[in-house]
Design goal:
Layout lengths: L3 H31 L5 H12 L6 H62 L6 E4 L4 E4 L2 E4 L2 H15 L6 H9 L8 H15 L2 H7 E4 L3 E4 L6 E3 L1
Parallel strand pairs: 1-6
Antiparallel strand pairs: 1-2, 2-3, 4-5
Length: 228
């Protein structure tokens, strides 16, 4: 069943959509009420006809006919304006609702990614094949360079032993030298190349963790690691 935060989030989204629709509907009603009546001009022309029955000349009658035609044209234009305003308000409502939904989706996605970063990636199995330069992470298969495989193998062995290796220690294990003779940056470079080789930034960042002032470690269960 959905959790209480999930239901609360849905209520907020629905309330936001309802508020947007209500505001735009209120604006539409107010706008249409304040627009002049389409027959207002015709009513004025008709009043001129009634109040000026002495206008019997050909020119005067022609002028009144032109005014009547202008009133009809004004009424038609005002009707088309009303339709244009209505369509624009509908589009505005749709865009605002879509923007609200997308913002909520982005916020939920960011929250989910944050939870994944805090919890780490769930790895059921990690198979490292040095002979084939291949790695199988759950159901994902990666073909890595020999250098990247060596770096990953060193991290895997350290994880199985419950150790955290600094950059200098990683470089020392791979190069066969003493850790005091190795540079921390060299090991950090190997870690960066390993992450680049894995390709998926989210997977790489969550799989190979950097613990401040301690070193690097694979953020997986030691029992899930196999090496061939």
């Amino acid at each position: 069943m959905p959790s209480e935060p999930f239901r609360a989030g849905n209520r907020v989204v629905l309330a936001g959509i309802a508020a947007i629709v209500a505001i735009l509907a209120g604006a539409a009603v107010l706008l249409f009420l304040t627009l002049p009546d389409g027959n207002a001009f015709n009513a004025r022309v008709e009043r001129i006809f009634v109040e000026n029955d002495a206008l019997t000349g050909a020119g005067e009658i022609r002028l009144l006919e032109i005014l009547a035609q202008s009133g009809t044209a004004f009424s038609e234009v005002l009707t088309s304006y009303r339709m244009v305003i209505f369509v624009l308000l509908v589009f505005a409502a749709a865009l605002l609702v879509a923007a609200l939904v997308f913002l909520v989706m982005i916020a939920a996605l960011n929250r989910r990614i944050g939870e994944m970063e805090r919890a780490g990636i769930e790895v059921r199995s990690l198979l490292i094949s040095r002979g084939e330069n291949a790695v199988v992470l759950n159901d994902m298969s990666f073909t890595l360079t020999p250098a990247a495989i060596e770096t990953l193998a060193v991290l895997a062995e350290a994880r199985m032993d419950g150790e955290i290796l600094s950059g200098a220690e990683i470089e020392a294990v791979i190069s066969g030298r003493d850790a005091s003779d190795c540079d921390e940056a060299a090991g950090a470079t190997r870690i960066k190349r390993l992450r680049d080789a894995l390709g998926n930034q989210l997977v790489a960042e969550l799989l190979v963790r950097n613990i401040a002032r301690k070193g690097y470690v694979l953020a997986i269960d030691r029992n899930a690691i196999r090496m061939i």
